[in-house]
Design goal:
single chain; 2 domains; about 475 residues; Rossmann fold; two-stranded antiparallel ribbon; alpha/beta
Length: about 475
């Protein structure tokens, strides 16, 4: 069984049909929740907790329900209170209540005039009750080289999805698309008794934020999105947008290595070494022994997809380990990559993890689309070409796509504020905010993700000003690395 810690980590790795009209009856979630003092270590003294019930399937509002936990920190200047800010957690599967506990000390400025509200989304309910059949990877994900291999992958994944759906004790398997999550968010709004909410959405929570903007534009006072993918653009286009950024970060790594004698590749042509390694592994996979998975084979696609970490880590520890792994692999020893690469390749073939995103249209339509994507990726980035692993994982999804990528009507939406790292997710966030007139995205000039949750003072300052006063910073605003 997965531990909660592993579930959270796996969920962090993790970036339709016309809606059935809902009945006019007011669901139970509209009732005011009962707030009580929260329990637990490291809990702010004034943090309050509650819970609401929402339908498992919003098309059947009087059917089975699930319970969503809520938390709030009341405004510290109640006489000047503006309203509530709802945090929309990422993952998917992260718990917003835990996010609020961790981030409370960094959000004191925002809290002066707002109740800060958090909730644990339906995806976290799913992870807490995940049955063993949903935890077992259907395969170790690899890149199909032919239509036959693509069909075999689809069949394998379909069997894994079906086994997970049959074992599902919650009914949530096919009801975790971001439109369903957005309806839960509006249930929270109604329970709070607010006409409009302000939002802070991070990472995959931005997909739910877009779904909310699609369904309830009139209920948004302000929307801050932090390191979020642009679901409107579609998963494949988003991946293609990130390839030049990944190349630029790899160039930083190579320059760092050239200036750092402790780097195992110091004094060598880092890019040429990487390309020789990955192209050779595509022809003849590197055999390695993993402490967790036994004898494994690593292809160039595995290394390009899962081997490189853009964030160098404390004192460059991740980049030091990456350089050492390349050096060993170039000499035929793939042990430096084996555990992390194969472990991640298995996570992205785990039905219970994938079920939280496949309903948002995260799949190739067929082998022809995969081939076209590979052609574009090769042209943009020879060093990181190949099939998009997150999209491959949803191959074989057995249900209709509930929330496909499509244009977003912007009439009635306020300008959004975005923030993202120029080393990674800024390009995603700017892609999204650029669709909404008057919006701005702040660039954080360093590695990072979910900047306000990471305590980055400059992005938090801009978010606080925007959410409080509805004032946006000038276009092109840059925050230095902290």
């Amino acid at each position: 069984m997965m531990t909660n810690r592993r579930r959270r980590r796996h969920a962090a790795l993790l970036i339709g049909l016309t809606l059935t009209a809902l009945t006019a009856a007011t669901p139970a979630a509209a009732r005011e929740p009962f707030w009580r003092a929260c329990a637990g270590p490291d809990t702010p003294a004034d943090l309050e907790c509650a819970a609401i019930e929402v339908p498992v399937d919003w098309a059947r509002p009087h059917g089975a329900t699930i319970t969503l936990d809520l938390a709030r920190l009341p405004a510290t200047e109640p006489a000047r209170r503006i309203g509530s800010v709802l945090g929309v957690p990422g993952g998917p599967g992260a718990k917003g209540v835990e996010d609020l506990r961790r981030a409370a000390a960094d959000l004191t400025g925002l809290r002066r005039r707002f109740d800060l509200v958090a909730y644990n989304p339906r995806t976290s309910v799913w992870l807490d009750r995940l049955p063993p059949a949903c935890e077992r990877p259907a395969t170790t994900l690899s890149e199909p080289a032919s239509p036959k291999e693509y069909r075999a992958l689809a069949e394998t994944m379909a069997k894994g999805f079906e086994a997970c759906r049959e074992a599902d004790p919650t009914g949530l398997f096919g009801a975790m698309d971001s439109l369903s999550v957005a309806r839960d968010m509006d249930a929270v709004r109604r329970a709070l008794g607010e006409e409009r909410l302000s939002f802070m959405a991070n990472s995959y929570g931005g997909v739910a934020a877009v779904a909310y903007a699609r369904l309830f534009p009139q209920r948004i006072r302000a929307m801050y999105v932090d390191g979020t993918p642009d679901h409107v653009d579609g998963w494949l286009d988003q991946t293609l947008r990130t390839l030049p950024v990944r190349d630029a970060t790899f160039t930083r790594f190579a320059a760092w290595c050239a200036a750092t004698p402790a780097c195992a590749l110091h004094g060598r042509d880092v890019k040429a070494t990487w390309r020789d390694l990955t192209e050779g592994a595509d022809r003849t996979p590197i055999r390695a022994t993993s402490a967790h998975f036994g004898e494994v084979e690593l292809t160039g696609w595995h290394l390009r997809s899962f081997g490189f970490m853009a964030d160098p880590g404390p004192e460059n520890t991740r980049w030091l380990a990456f350089a050492d792994a390349i050096d060993k692999a170039a000499r035929g020893d793939g042990s430096g990559f084996a555990d992390g690469v194969i472990g991640t390749a298995r996570v992205w073939a785990t039905p219970g993890i994938l079920a939280m995103t496949c309903g948002d249209g995260r799949s190739y339509t067929g082998y022809a689309q995969l081939e076209e994507f590979r052609r574009q990726a090769r042209r943009i980035s020879p060093d990181f070409q190949g099939a998009a692993f997150d999209t491959l994982g949803c191959t074989g999804w057995p249900l209709p796509v509930a929330n496909p990528s499509r244009p977003l009507p912007t009439r009635g939406l306020p300008p959004f504020l975005g923030a993202g790292s120029t080393w990674g997710d800024h390009v995603w966030t700017e892609s999204l905010t650029g669709r909404i007139p008057g919006s701005v995205t702040v660039a954080y000039d360093g590695p990072g993700h979910a900047l306000y949750l990471s305590g980055k003072a400059c992005p938090i300052r801009h978010a606080t000003s925007y959410l409080t006063h509805l004032r946006l910073p000038p276009p092109g605003t840059v925050c230095p690395a902290e």
